[in-house]
Structure formats: structure tokens, C-alpha cells
Amino acid sequence: MNLLIGGGQATAGPPLGPALGPLGVNILEIVNKINELTKGYAGMKVPVKVTVNPETKEFEVSVGTPTTSALIVSELKIKKGSGTPNTEKVGNLTMEQIVHISKLKHSELLAKTLKAAAKEVLGSCVSMGVTVEGKDPRELQREMDEGLHNELFNKSQD
């Protein structure tokens, strides 16, 4: 079963309890495992997959990465993105923060390289009303196309 759970905040109530109850597994054990694995994502919604073998009652919990927008919100320590991103800016990230988010999300994005992943993250910044290095994220995407900021991606590959 696939769920979206607040980091470190799973409970035996819905949606987990009613879904797991009929399987005869120890729900509290599964809840504790989810909370242990997601505590680093406190304040963010995290995709969680719970797989249960109904015969042996064994279970497996795998945790995905929060959405790009949730990671941006977390980096900025704000509640949400801008409702009017063209006129209202809600925060400013550094290129190092963009690289950090890109590393976390790279495996789940369509991008083949970390640099391409960073361009996808910058695209999310545009729609959220977030500037990067004090500039419109689209300007940084153009700069990356021109080869600027390459040193950030070269040293990040180490």
C-alpha cells in the first residue's frame, strides 16, 4: 500500500489502521518503523510504501523522498509557496541549496544529470515564487546553459 505520511507522524488511526487491521499484523510495530524512517522529514509529507506478506505477517517499509516543493519549503523554513509567484516572492535559495535538493530528488526525476535535475528544481522555484541567489530562477537556468555554475556540479559529483 502506498501512503503519504507526515514525517515521523504515522499513527495507528486512518489510513494505516483500517488498511492493516484485516491483515493481522502488529500495526504499532509498522507505525514505529515508519516514524523511525521518516523522522528526518519532520514537517513534510513523505511517500511511504508498506508491503505485507499476509501468510508470514512480515512487512517491509520503504520511504520515498518528499516532493520537490516540500524540500524547497523546508529549506526556506516557510509554510508554503507563493499564491501569486509572478508578483509575490516568498524566499531566496542559494545555488548550494538547489544542488542539495537536486541530489535528494535526482533518482526520482527524469533528469539524466545532476545539472539537469537542478534545472528541474529551478523550474519548481519559478512556480512557487522563490528566487535563487536573488535572481529569477529562469535566469539561473540560462546561466547554466551558458556553462556558469558548472564548478558546483563538477565538485558535487565527487
Report what the structure shows:
By secondary structure, the protein is of the alpha+beta class. The protein has 2 domains: 62 residues, Ribosomal protein L11, N-terminal domain; 89 residues, Ribosomal protein L11/L12, C-terminal domain (Arc Repressor Mutant, subunit A, Orthogonal Bundle). The chain is built from 7 helices and 5 strands, in the order βααββαβααβαα. The protein has a 3-stranded antiparallel β-sheet, covered by helices on one side. Strands 4-5 form a two-stranded parallel sheet. Strand 2 and strand 3 form a beta hairpin. It is elongated and about 55 Å long. The model has no long low-confidence stretch (mean pLDDT 90).
Number of helices: 7
CATH class of the largest domain: Mainly Alpha
Order of helices and strands: EHHEEHEHHEHH
Bulk shape: elongated
Largest sheet: 3 strands, antiparallel
Low-confidence stretches: none
- Kindly state the number of beta strands: 5
Helical content, roughly? Answer: 40-55%
State which percent range the strand residues make up.
15-25%
The span between the termini is: 36 Å
Number of domain units: 2
What is the CATH topology classification name of the largest domain?
A: Arc Repressor Mutant, subunit A
| Overall average residue pLDDT | 90
CATH architectural arrangement of the largest domain: Orthogonal Bundle
Oligomer: single chain
Core attributes:
two-stranded parallel sheet; alpha+beta; 43% helix; 2 domains; 158 residues; Arc Repressor Mutant, subunit A; Ribosomal protein L11, N-terminal domain
